[in-house]
Amino acid sequence: MDRVKTGITGLDEMLGGGFLRETANLIEGAPGTGKTTLGMQFIYNGIIQENEPGLIITFEEFPKQYYHDAAAFGWNFQELEKKGLLKVVMTSPEVSRLDVESVGGMIEGYVDQMGARRVVIDSMSHFSRLTQDPVELRSLEFNFINALKRERLTCLLTRESPVLLGEAYDDSSIGFVVDSYLILRYVEIESAIRKALLVLKMRGSDHAKDIRQYDITAQGFEVQSKFEGQEGILSGNPRRMAASFVEAFVKR
Amino acid sequence: MDRVKTGITGLDEMLGGGFLRETANLIEGAPGTGKTTLGMQFIYNGIIQENEPGLIITFEEFPKQYYHDAAAFGWNFQELEKKGLLKVVMTSPEVSRLDVESVGGMIEGYVDQMGARRVVIDSMSHFSRLTQDPVELRSLEFNFINALKRERLTCLLTRESPVLLGEAYDDSSIGFVVDSYLILRYVEIESAIRKALLVLKMRGSDHAKDIRQYDITAQGFEVQSKFEGQEGILSGNPRRMAASFVEAFVKR
Amino acid sequence: MDRVKTGITGLDEMLGGGFLRETANLIEGAPGTGKTTLGMQFIYNGIIQENEPGLIITFEEFPKQYYHDAAAFGWNFQELEKKGLLKVVMTSPEVSRLDVESVGGMIEGYVDQMGARRVVIDSMSHFSRLTQDPVELRSLEFNFINALKRERLTCLLTRESPVLLGEAYDDSSIGFVVDSYLILRYVEIESAIRKALLVLKMRGSDHAKDIRQYDITAQGFEVQSKFEGQEGILSGNPRRMAASFVEAFVKR
Amino acid sequence: MDRVKTGITGLDEMLGGGFLRETANLIEGAPGTGKTTLGMQFIYNGIIQENEPGLIITFEEFPKQYYHDAAAFGWNFQELEKKGLLKVVMTSPEVSRLDVESVGGMIEGYVDQMGARRVVIDSMSHFSRLTQDPVELRSLEFNFINALKRERLTCLLTRESPVLLGEAYDDSSIGFVVDSYLILRYVEIESAIRKALLVLKMRGSDHAKDIRQYDITAQGFEVQSKFEGQEGILSGNPRRMAASFVEAFVKR
Amino acid sequence: MDRVKTGITGLDEMLGGGFLRETANLIEGAPGTGKTTLGMQFIYNGIIQENEPGLIITFEEFPKQYYHDAAAFGWNFQELEKKGLLKVVMTSPEVSRLDVESVGGMIEGYVDQMGARRVVIDSMSHFSRLTQDPVELRSLEFNFINALKRERLTCLLTRESPVLLGEAYDDSSIGFVVDSYLILRYVEIESAIRKALLVLKMRGSDHAKDIRQYDITAQGFEVQSKFEGQEGILSGNPRRMAASFVEAFVKR
Amino acid sequence: MDRVKTGITGLDEMLGGGFLRETANLIEGAPGTGKTTLGMQFIYNGIIQENEPGLIITFEEFPKQYYHDAAAFGWNFQELEKKGLLKVVMTSPEVSRLDVESVGGMIEGYVDQMGARRVVIDSMSHFSRLTQDPVELRSLEFNFINALKRERLTCLLTRESPVLLGEAYDDSSIGFVVDSYLILRYVEIESAIRKALLVLKMRGSDHAKDIRQYDITAQGFEVQSKFEGQEGILSGNPRRMAASFVEAFVKR
């Protein structure tokens, strides 16, 4: 299978080699979990390591915020833009959904001219401003995502989770529409906050099922080892596993 | 009793031999739990193993997505369509509910022409767009399901669950209307996500009551052994059973 | 006191001999917990064992579904109908509430002609379609139930619970209006789903207070022994009692 | 202080001798917890033991239901009515709130003619049908209760709790308006349902603070001993106290 | 710092000597927790022990209810009113908010004539009837409180908490507006209900941070010792601390 | 990187040296957690220690309340205002959002005249009065914050959390918009209330991930050591870690 490598330490291995080409991949997380960093790195590594030009579509922050945030990791986005390998576009859900559905639109143009192969949508949450009706929203999202896939782009879609810790009832249906679904979570362990990554779903491919620690370092997103000896990690508030007790007793 | 075999490893045994013929069977699960895979496999095995042609009615994805997803498991859906043994139909709840209630409709046509015996509705959740009124929705669903049963079809109905982990208050009444009710759930165990299957209800037949692990492998849906030593599996966040403690102590 | 025996193994004993005559008795449960089976068996045993003709009023399913479901337990409902001992009536809450309040209505007719002594209403949940106003709904339900009691019928009323596991906030007030209140619940124990029955309330009679297991067998509803060594059964997600620990330690 | 004895085993002792005279006392509980039984017994014992005539104001059930329910405990309400010592009045919140606020109303009449000293209002929950506005409802309830107190009646007010087990968020403010507040709760202990009584509040008097078991026996309401060795009783789903563990270990 | 002593056993010590002069101090609690008793005692002790006349502004109960409740603690409010040291005023939020904002209002009058230094507002919860808009409510409350402070009054504001046990989501913002915030809570310990007091916030002063037991005795409000060996007191449903276990084991 | 030191004991170290210059930093907490104290100290230390003039924009309290509260910590705000190093401005969200978006506005004026480098917005919660629409609110907040950053101010934004203990579902999106996000929480430990500080997010910088105790002392905000041996601190209701048990046993 044709894999689109993220180039992120530990992540490609979890994904069985990378995302599948021309699929839509959702990254969901609370503020500060690194969704945008993951997206920028996906685009940067695509350009540098795989020679695949990329787009970043932003619905809120200005391009210069991305240049600035990328620079902190040593990624020179402005230079890549000058070379025609990257384009950071600030637009709105209203405009971009019409754009992808018309012939000769902006995104189609970047694909044609730059040869863009990857796109980050930061974030899909802004689509909720298009309509209050969940049925219509699902249809809009589905059509937008499919239009991107028709442009043969491999898509990374960020989504904001409003819950800082713990599980929330999620009334969104976007998880059903995408090809893969990655979840970023805060977890309190030993009086500190760690970050957890889970590949919940990946259509048409095997993937790691374990919950791994990750961190945002000076080099960017870095997936680390699996959590050990904890129950209820995804609740954000895990407990030491009973097993640890038993072991401690039995070993005596 | 006349059993409609799913041909899925472990599942027919849980169902006491398979679904009962001409019944409506609900499969509910979160994104990525494999509802559609289960449905495709039910149809595929029906054709290949039992010589029972089948229909897949989809309300969102295009047929080519099903061809593509099926191919990943080695199931050649396009060939089966050419042979007249399978039909993947993309339509809407609006159209299909009218269709089944009129004489000489499309679905009736496939039953007559192809001899279709099985149908997958993917997914019943899209019916919620027909009305905001839960009483009317129940009536619409009930009538649709009964019309399919009158066509002597054995029906597998998928339903999307919005909750990733844990129990949700479910205000739907479709569970009361169907003949059997299967639940797919994510479960966090030892810092990894596993999948659990439960046959909650099966009218007119005995069935397995235990909660089993399952996985989506290269061959499709595969039901495995029962969970052991866990309490609260259906909460998504189980704990090791106290019994394990006691045993550990007592064995010393 | 005049007892109306259900003839269901274990249930009459829990009820102190059976329901009280000419009372309204509520059976509440999630899909698949066997509310309708319990109702059919109450009617069937009344006819066969106590020579008390009975009515089943259904607001959704067709009579043939009842014939079919009853047949699976070896109960020949169509024959009983021919003998004038049973009547399965499909109607609506709208019609039946007017019926019982007028002289010479249908239900009154069956009481007069068949000598019906027992009635099942399957289900009271459909009354919610009559009004959105909880005060008016309560009044409608109260009047309907009282009208049935004036016909000297002993009533078994089913009610759908939307929650599969766990406790739900119930904003219905029907529990205050009925004479007895039985609850059916799913319980996860040792990685399997069992069923629990509780007689919460019984006006004018003592009753069992313990929570008992039950099952739907080939012979119908069967109440079994009390649960043992579990805490929190009605939460659906019980835990082994601490007592088991203590015992295990102390016995050493 | 002038105490109004309930004559109920164990209850007067919890109340420091009985309710205070000319106060409003709230009894809140789920279906089947015995609110009405407690009310009837308060009136019956008042007449028989203390020579204090009483009124029962009902907003739903017919007087004959009270006669029937009382008879099950051996209390002959119809005879007491004939003797002019008791009056069971079925009315509505609309009528009775106007009645108590006008001179020469029905309730004033019973006080004057019968010398009524006690009243049961069964139930205050029906006041919610007078208005949707919580501020207005509180004012209506406050005025109604005060009017009863001005008639020098000692009032027992029942209130329906919609929650079968567990704690509910209660948006009512009636607890702030009354002089005492008694809570009846179901509790699951050792796989059975027991009943718990708590005097939460009692203005101007000391009272028992512990949570006691009670039961409805052939003689009526009977308060029993305190619960022992349980934590979280009022959650409805208590756990054995850790203390039991420690003890078990230490005693070895 | 200038301290306004409550004269309540244990409370002044928790407050670092008393409330700060000319501040607004919130007391929040469920029915029966003693908010009004605390308020009355604050006023009574002010008059008797500190020679500071006081006002009680009530929005629901009549003054005679305060006289009566005070008398139960041996406090003769009517006599103090005759001496011009106390005034219990029954009014409405509508009137009193206009009153404090106009020159020469009633409250200003009492300050001028009686030399009032302390005021109790019983309760601030009644302000919610002025508006449904939380932003406007906050502004009304803020202005009212500030107007009282401009009169150089030290204010004790009661607030009703609708939750009997456990933590509630509180959508009020009054806690941000006041100078100190005291919380009264019911706690279930060893099958009985105890009362807990916490000083959550106190602007400009240190204060006790521990959760103390208190009781309403014949002498009024009495703060007692800190809770010991319990976790989760403020949940209302605490558990014995694990530490107790460990100790028990280690001591052996 | 250019760091803006808070000068608060322990906090700069958690932030990797201080906030990043010209960023927006959110401080969220319940009443009494010290948000405003932290803000005042940030401004005060900026002036005294770093020679950076500062602004405090308040949407509710009067400047004199800040003077008074600051004085309690020994900070003479009025003197600093006279020296032109500080300005406390009481305004409204309506006015200030227009102000920052126009040329020559008030805030721009203070930056130009005073050379203000730091600003506190106390509190952002008041923006919710501008609109009920969460999409519009986010846009207003985003634009306001960006306008402040364009003035080259380093911003500390307070935000009120309505929950006293425990985790709340937060439907605000401001956390996604800011550069760093600090959370202040109450925690119940050993029957007392302590305060916890967490740096959840910090764009473009490493930061401490552990949850630290802090207190408001006579010198102001003081960050102390990490919590130890507790699980679930951010729930507000932590439990002793199982590890403590194991240790206790193993050490024997």
Tell me the distance between the termini of chain A.
50 Å
State the CATH class of chain A: Alpha Beta
Low-confidence stretches of chain A: 243-252
Sheet with the most strands of chain A?
Answer: 9 strands, mixed
% residues in beta strands of chain A: 25-35%
Shape of chain A: globular
Q: Quickly give the structural class of chain A.
A: alpha/beta
Largest interface: A-F, 37 and 42 residues
Task: Give the helix tally of chain A.
Answer: 9
- Number of DSSP strand runs of chain A: 13
CATH homologous superfamily placement of chain A? P-loop containing nucleotide triphosphate hydrolases
- The mean pLDDT of chain A is 90
How do the strands of the widest beta sheet of chain A line up side by side?
5-4-6-7-3-8-9-10-11
One letter per element, helices H and strands E, the order of chain A comes to EHEEHEHHEHHEHEHEEEEEEH
Helical residue percent band of chain A = 25-40%
- Oligomeric form: homohexamer
Domains of chain A, number? 1
Computed Rg of chain A: 19 Å
Known CATH architecture of chain A: 3-Layer(aba) Sandwich
At CATH level 3, the topology of chain A is Rossmann fold
